[in-house]
Amino acid sequence: MTNLPAETDIVVVGSGAAGMVAALTAAAGGAKVIVFEKERSPGGTSNFFEGTFAVESEMQRQRYITYTRDEAFKNIMEYSHWIANPRLVRAIVNESGPTIGWLQEQGIEFSDATINMPDSPRTYHIIKGKGEAVIKALVTKAKEKGVDIRLAAPVKRVVKQGEKIAGVVVDDNGEDVPVKAKAVVIATGGYANNKDWIKKYTGFDLEVNLVPVGNIDKTGDGLRMAWEVGAGEEGKSLLELYRAGPIGPEFAMGSQLELATIQPGLWVNPRGERFCDESVAFYDASVGNVNARLKEGFSYTIFDEAALERMINEGIDKNANVSTFPGTKPTDIRRELQAALERGTTEVLAADSVAELAGKINIAPAVLEATVAEYNAFCEKKHDDLFAKDVKYLRPITGPKYYAIRARTVFLGTMGGIKINERTAVLDKKDTVIPGLYAVGFDAGGMYGDSYPIKCSSGLASAFATNSGRIAGKSILKYLGK
User: Fold this and answer.
1) Between the CA atoms of 421, 441, 192 and 412, what dihedral angle is there, to the nearest 10 degrees?
2) Would you tell me which of 67, 167, 323, 347 could form a disulfide with 121, CB atoms 3.0–4.6 Å apart?
3) How far apart are CA 101 and CA 107, in angstroms?
């Protein structure tokens, strides 16, 4: 016998930031809400983000940050080459400042409004306790407002009667149980762990030349269910790409070896050739895009003893997160490096010559030697004739010890699939609203162009989650007449 209620006002499918914000917003407006989460704990990937985007927040005003909503809108749209949905982008940008205040009202604390890359607007609002604190606060407040949160309860399909959404079917301990609802919010977080869909929609081979980070059991359930009831498609092939290494169970995320990997030194492809201006290191989307051009799914960061000493004594150029800011000195990196070498990993290698290093990473020695020689010549003449890299990052590779770390093409999530309007209402294939169906966060398309626009909007992915959630909650209340 099931203990699920027979009906409710709103069903939210997924308990990440987008889903929980939608649930709490709707419940605060008087709606009866059930959240179904297929995992045994709430939050999913949302537990890990460090900060979020906003424009014209009170925190920014207090810091004399004058970046405006108009500027943010224009920059995001221009970055997307106007592929993004302009009405949706405008709605998210306009909502972003008030959302920071709303999150603070829920008990979420922020430490600063800053940036996480050079020469970018100060839109990044750093969260105390990261996303885990956000999820904890949202779940607590939602329960106080009467939201029924059901864990380990996957939704199998959305029910449509006539033109309107009428509820869902839930797997309740192996039994298919219908739950009537006037509105459904899809917030399942995309399909990052669906091997077949990754191949079909992006052309990559999951865990071969593309590695998911921080995603578990994201199989595209929400997209499938929305498409089954006639939803249109948008942005289903878009990934939030990055370049990171070393990767493997023996390497902790945020290790000091990872700091060495992401520095703007010398990067080579699996053939031993340079493939970009390495100072793109500061811009995550560009980093992911250049690495994703390599069909093998990886490149190498090459550095020497001098580079190691410079990091230890002078600090890093590029940070990995808000706690390892530029200038941080990775004083434990030698121990990590030695431990990796002693384990005999193929992710981190060392040699006494460029030719020996090339042999260890399966590159023709003559090619890598030519690459290093050419790079060193650019350093000496203080001009990168190939990729015009900023001279301050042109530092020769001369030994006496040489190192290589494999840097994989990784991604933080899929970034679309369901077509929505600026109210987060799902549209069908003729761009007509499907009454009662909404999509938010990584399930919803239209916020981005062909890449994540991080240079002009630090923290936009998490902001799209929370702001689309708020917009969905308010839109549904209006739809229900509350």
Assistant:
1) 120
2) 67
3) 10
Q: How far is CA 188 from CA 26, 173, 215, 387, in A?
A: 18, 20, 11, 41
- Angle, CA 21 vertex, CA 16 and CA 27 arms, to 5°: 125
**What is the structure's pLDDT at 1?**
41
Which residues does 352 contact at the CB level (< 8 Å), separation at least 6? 399, 400, 401, 402
Q: Where on the phi/psi map is residue 254: left (φ > 0), alpha (ψ -120 to 50), or beta?
A: left
What is the pTM (predicted TM-score) of this model?
A: 0.96
Number of H helices, E strands in the chain: 14, 19
Find how far residue 305's CA is from the centre of its chain.
33
- 3-class DSSP state for residue 191? coil
Residues 6+ apart with CB under 8 A from 244: 213, 258, 261, 262, 407, 408, 410
Task: Write the pLDDT tens digit of every residue in 216-275.
Answer: 999 999 999 999 999 999 999 999 999 999 999 888 878 999 999 999 999 999 999 999
Centroid of chain to Cα 114: 18
Place of tokens 């027979």: 6
The dihedrals phi and psi of 300, each to the nearest 5 degrees, come to -125, 140
pLDDT in tens, 4-59: 899 999 999 999 999 999 999 999 999 999 999 999 999 999 998 999 999 999 99
Check residue 265 and report its DSSP letter. Answer: S
Chain centroid to CA 331: how far? 28
